TrEMBL record:
Catalytic activity as recorded in UniProt: dITP + H2O = dIMP + diphosphate + H(+); XTP + H2O = XMP + diphosphate + H(+); ITP + H2O = IMP + diphosphate + H(+)
Active site residues according to the UniProt entry: D72 (proton acceptor)
Pfam families: Ham1p_like
Naturally occurring in which organism (per UniProt): Desulfoglaeba alkanexedens ALDC
Protein name (database record): dITP/XTP pyrophosphatase
Assembly behavior: Homodimer.
Binding annotation for substrate: T10, R11, N12, K13, G14, K15, S73, F153, G154, Y155, D156, K176, H181, R182
E.C. no: 3.6.1.66
Cellular component terms per the entry's GO annotation: cytosol
This protein's record includes keyword Magnesium: yes
Length: 223
């Protein structure tokens, strides 16, 4: 049987590495956005991780004509009312670097004792016609007063995970995968991967027949 192509729809190298490592060995041909010509960026204007994950996955699947897996994730800090949340990648402004975002977070929490936070990850796997599967997970921790460790990406050096007494940036990739928001969501996807591939094949077949006018299926609402 022909292998399914799955494109990992992220421009974040840290995320891409974690997702590709997790799916390595799964019966699918993993591609990333660099394997295709340049495609426009999606505007991440949804109010929730869920909305943005679906938007990125569906847009990419539609443009490239192959199933796509997107990740929308971020950090929710309790004392900041859940900020930076869906704005995590641009907390310090459009195009902000990880260190600018981290500096802004430290500033926002300066002098605060309540430093509880959680990382959230929503994965959306969409086919070109718009059907999608969703996986979601979170991981709770504490925001430190200064960065520790040089692994990982994003807010990892500030995110301390008490059960392992390490920040995400001090963990090996395997340790981070075993406890992180993205690791947990990816494990759920891995566990039912065979079923997911059956579902994808069915949707692609429906789509093919639908294009040929052989059947009348209702496409889900497109945004
Ligand atoms: O949209 P794509 O192209 O996937 O890449 P992005 O970096 O813009 O990703 P998001 O829109 O989902 O923003 C998520 C931000 O949250 C942060 N983040 C998410 N997961 C993280 C993790 O595992 N460790 C550290 N920071 C993380 C990081 O700053 C990301 O830029
Ligand atoms: Mg983004």
């Amino acid at each position: 049987m022909e292998r399914i192509i799955l494109v990992v729809a992220t421009r974040n190298k840290g995320k891409s590495r974690e997702i590709r490592n997790a799916l390595n060995g799964c019966p699918v041909d993993i591609k990333d956005l660099n394997d295709f010509g340049p495609i426009p960026e999606v505007e991440e204007d949804g109010d929730t991780f869920d909305d943005n994950a679906y938007k990125k996955a569906h847009f990419t699947a539609k443009v490239l004509g192959v199933p796509a897996l997107a990740d929308d994730s971020g950090l929710e800090v309790e004392a900041l009312g859940g900020a930076p949340g869906v704005y995590s990648s641009r907390y310090a402004g459009p195009g902000a670097t990880d260190s600018e975002n981290n500096a802004k977070l430290l500033e926002a929490l300066r002098g605060r004792n309540d430093r509880k936070a959680r990382f959230v990850c929503v994965l959306s796997l969409a086919v070109p016609m718009g059907y999608a599967l969703t996986y979601e997970a979170a991981c709770e921790g504490i925001i430190l007063e200064a960065p520790r460790g040089d692994g990982g990406f994003g807010y990892d050096p500030l995110f301390y995970y008490p059960p392992l007494k390490k920040t995400f940036a001090e963990m090996t990739p395997e340790e981070k995968f075993s406890v992180s928001h993205r690791g947990k969501a990816l494990k759920e996807l891995q566990e039912e991967f065979d079923k997911v591939m059956v579902w994808v094949r069915q949707r692609l077949e429906e789509e093919r027949r639908w294009r040929l006018g052989e059947m009348c299926v209702e496409a889900p609402n497109d945004e």
